[in-house]
Amino acid sequence: MRRLLIVLLSLSLAGLSGPVAQAAPSGDRDVIVQLFEWNWNSVARECGQVLGPKGYGAVQVSPPQEHVVLPGSGYPWWQDYQPVSYKLDNTRRGTRGQFVAMVNSCHAAGVKVYADAVINHMTGGSSGGTGSAGSAYSHYDYPGTYQTQDFHHCGRNGNDDIVNYNDRYEVQNCELVDLADLATESDYVRGRIAAYLNDLLSIGVDGFRIDAAKHIPATDIAAITSRLSRPAYVYQEVIYGAGEPITPDEYVGNGDVLEFRYGKDLAKIFNTERLAYLRTFAEPLPSDHAVVFTDNHDTQRGTGVLTFRDNGRYAMANAFMLAWTYGTPKVMSSYEYSSNDEGPPSTSTGQTVDTTCFTNRWRCEHEWRVIANMVGFHNAVRGTAVTEWWDNGNDAIAFGRGDKGYLILNDESTALTGRSYHTDLPAGTYCDVFHGDYTPGHCSGSTYTVDSSGWFRADVAATDGLALHADAKVS
C-alpha cells in the first residue's frame, strides 16, 4: 500500500512457551522475488518454468484477500492494499482455488510462497461499496468481520489521519491516508487477523510480509503471530525515518525487517559516489535480520533508488546485492507504468491478465540474465566470506567469495582491459554467468580459465561485469 514500512516477524505456536519466529528463510535457497501484481495462474507457471530452475527460494505474492474495486480510479495497484474481508474467493488475481493451485505448483518446483499480509487497516473513504468478492462494506463496518468498536478513532487532526510522524501515538493509532486503523491491541482483532493468517498457512503458505508494520506496535504483532498454527517466516515493513521515535530495530525481536536504507544507499554509491566504497557496505540492522532490496513497488515510485529504467546499472546493483554477504536478498519484478497509481496490465473490468514477460508492460527484471544467473551465484557462495578484494579507487571493483565465486563490476565509462585477477576458485574453466547461461559442461557465453595459481585474465566493458562460480564450472 502507499506507505513504506518494514515488516516484522514474531511467530510462535499457540500453547508453546517460546517463539518460533524464523530469523531467516530456511533451506539453501533464500532469495525472494516479488512478482508484483501477478495473477495466481502466472505465478504458478513461473515457479515451474523459471523460479525453481534458476534457484529462487521464495516468491512474494500480492495481497490475497478481498479488496476494494475502484474503476473510477482506473483500478489502481493500491486498491489491493485496502481489505474488505479476509475471503480469498475472488480478487483481481484469481480465485481461492487458483491460489491453492499456485501454492502447490510453487512447492512442487521447490519455491516457497510468502503472502503480502495487510493487517494494519481496512479501507479508506466513508462512502463504502462492494468488494471484489461481493462483500458490502463501509469505512468502519465490515459485516461478519469488524465493526466500529474494532477500530482506532484517534480524534486528532480533524479527519483522524496521521500528520506528525514524530508522535508515536499518532503513527500507531491514527489513520494512514484515511485507511480505517484496526485496534490491534484488541483480543478480538488479534484473533480475527490470526485466523486469516492461519487460513493461509492451512493452504501451505510459508510466510508473510507484514505490510505497514510501523503502524502496529511490535508487541501487537508478537501477540498476533503467537497465535499462528505453525512456524512461518515473517518479514516486516518498517520504513526508517530520521529522528522518528519508531525505528526498525525495535521489531527485530520478532523476526526480520525490510531494510529500506539499503536501496537508497546503494543507489547513492552507484550514482554519485564510488563503487570502491562498497568494500564495507552494510546497514545498521543486523545482517541476519535484514531483508535487502534495490527497489520495491513503493520505492520505485519515489526517488533515490535504482529501478528497471536504469538498465545496466540496475543489473549491476542487483548483481552486487546477490554476491555480497549482507542480508536476505529480495529481487523486484515490475511492470511499466505511466503514473504512480497505474495498475498492472488488466482487462476492461480490472482483472490482471496473464503475464508474458517483456511484452504488454511486464518488465520481469527477475528474468534478466544477469539477475537470474546471479541467484545461482548467490546460492553457490552461501556461507563464504569476502576474499581477494580489488578496486581501482573509483568505479571498478572485484572480489571473491572464498573458493566458490568471483565477481567483477565496472561502472567506469571505459573498459577495464589488460588486467589479470586473482581468485581462490580451484583451477578450471568457468562460465561467465553475466553473459551466458550454464548447463552441465556447457556455457552459452564466454568462459574463463583459472590457472593453478588462481589467476585469470579478463577484459570487462564499461557498465558491465563478469561473474564466475563453482556451480558453473565447464571443465
Automatic annotation (TrEMBL):
InterPro entries (alphabetical): A-amylase/branching_C, A-amylase_C, Alpha_amylase, GH, GH13_cat_dom, Glyco_hydro_b
Keywords: Calcium, Carbohydrate metabolism, Glycosidase, Hydrolase, Metal-binding, Signal
Domain of life: Bacteria
UniProt keyword Calcium present: yes
Signal peptide residue numbers: 1-23
Any one Pfam family match given in the protein's UniProt record, by short name: Alpha-amylase
Gene Ontology MF, one: alpha-amylase activity
SMART domains in the record: Aamy, Aamy_C
Reaction catalysis annotation: Endohydrolysis of (1->4)-alpha-D-glucosidic linkages in polysaccharides containing three or more (1->4)-alpha-linked D-glucose units
EC number: 3.2.1.1
Domain Glycosyl hydrolase family 13 catalytic: 30-378
UniProt cross-references to Gene3D superfamilies, sorted A to Z: Glycosidases, Golgi alpha-mannosidase II
Keyword Kinase: no
Domain Alpha-amylase C-terminal, chain residue ranges per copy: 387-473
Cofactor: Ca(2+)
Family: Belongs to the glycosyl hydrolase 13 family.
Protein name per the record: Alpha-amylase
